[in-house]
Amino acid sequence: MNSLDHENRFNNRERTVLKVVVVGAGTMGAGIAYSAAAAGHDIQLVEQNQRFLDQGIARIEDYLTKGVTRGTITKDQANLIRGRVHGTIDYSKACADAELAVEAVYEDEKVKSQVFGALDKSCPKAAILASNTSSISISKLAHGTTRPEKVVGLHFFNPVPSMKLVEVIRGQKTSPETLKRAEDFAQTMGKTIVHSADRTGFIVNRSLMLFINESARLLDENVATPADIDKAFVLGANHPMGPLQLADFIGLDIVVDVLKVLEKEYGERFTPSPTLQRLVSEKKLGRKTKRGFYDY
Question: Which of 3, 191, 199, 223 would bridge with 218, disulfide CB 3.0–4.6 Å?
Fold first, then answer.
């Protein structure tokens, strides 16, 4: 299929099913793949090895099982969703007919740039390349491709199936058409869109990481216990969970990595707190390791 055919298929407003590649089968990648499949899209889920891929497929199966148990989907719907997700460790196979590729790998600019280089080489020229980055410049990622006008940011939030927000980020050379296509895709998944300029951290993480970091500094200074800090924001600011609970949910290693990206751009106010750095050095990363600010 040539480039023009791909353009025409994507522009057909009556056609809602897209061939989507999701690179990375971790928490975010699996959530994006599940949600896109639930919206009716055909998914190729790509990982670097079979073990990571199997773990990603298991995450999707967990979403399906919980959906059936809770009555949000039927067994027949679960089978349809399952049938739309195809796992592979072969980039060229996954990308052969791709109309949209979503990168959802580790929050590291070098790693993400390598993925974008591979996608640029493997995907048809008409395909859009989107990043789920929560902090890295879309323009920087686009620079390493031959199609910067087709690169866009689609920042989903965890857990993807239940979180309604998607930050859409336009790079310096992102075309209006690419932006519209990305928005249409997110909206097929039932998401609500906000737009952010291509500034490090975008909207949510630029504010949220500062909030989490300052809350951790309250611990550094023995101002209050973790439980009291979280309770103060749940009951005093009507937050659904406190900042330290949220950090444990996100993963303290991810929090520190994002803070370091923000620190490089904006300065020392984003320098990770000593408590955060200590917990990460001790491999106490939150819920995923059963220990963080709290024990689980």
Answer: 223
**Residue 6 pLDDT:** 40
Integer CA distances (angstroms), 279 to 147, 252, 282, in order: 41, 8, 5
Told to judge if 131 belongs to the known catalytic residues of this protein, a careful annotator would answer no
Rounded to 5°, angle at Cα 56 from 50 and 59: 145
Tell me if the domain spanning 3-196 has CATH number 3.40.50.10330.
no
Domain ranges of the chain: 3-196, 204-287
Q: Which residue of the set 134, 196, 213, 215 is catalytic?
A: 134
Query: Would you state the pLDDT for residue 123?
Result: 97
Rounded-to-5 percentages of helix, strand, coil across the chain: 55, 15, 30
Phi, psi of 129 (to 5 degrees): -115, 115
C-alpha dihedral (196, 253, 250, 48), degrees to nearest 10: 80
Backbone φ and ψ for 167, nearest 5 degrees, come out as -85, 125
CATH, domain range 204-287: 1.10.1040.10
42-46 and 151-156 beta bridge pairing = unpaired
Residue 55 DSSP code: H
Q: What tokens appear for 45 in the block?
A: 């889920």
> Given 167, 196, 215, 273, which residue is catalytic?
167
Q: Quote the CA–CA distance of 44 and 61 in Å, as a whole number.
A: 15
User: What is the value of pTM for the model shown?
Assistant: 0.89
* Residue labelled with tokens 């031959």: 146
Annotated active-site residue 213? The verdict is: no
41 catalytically annotated? no
- Asked if residue 184 has pLDDT above 90, the reply is yes
Mean pLDDT of 253-275: 95
Nearest to 109 by CA among 77, 151, 141, 149: 141
When pLDDT is averaged across residues 172-187 and rounded to a whole number, the result is 97
pLDDT tens per residue across span 190-203: 999 999 999 999 99
Q: Which of 196, 205, 213, 273 is catalytic?
A: 205
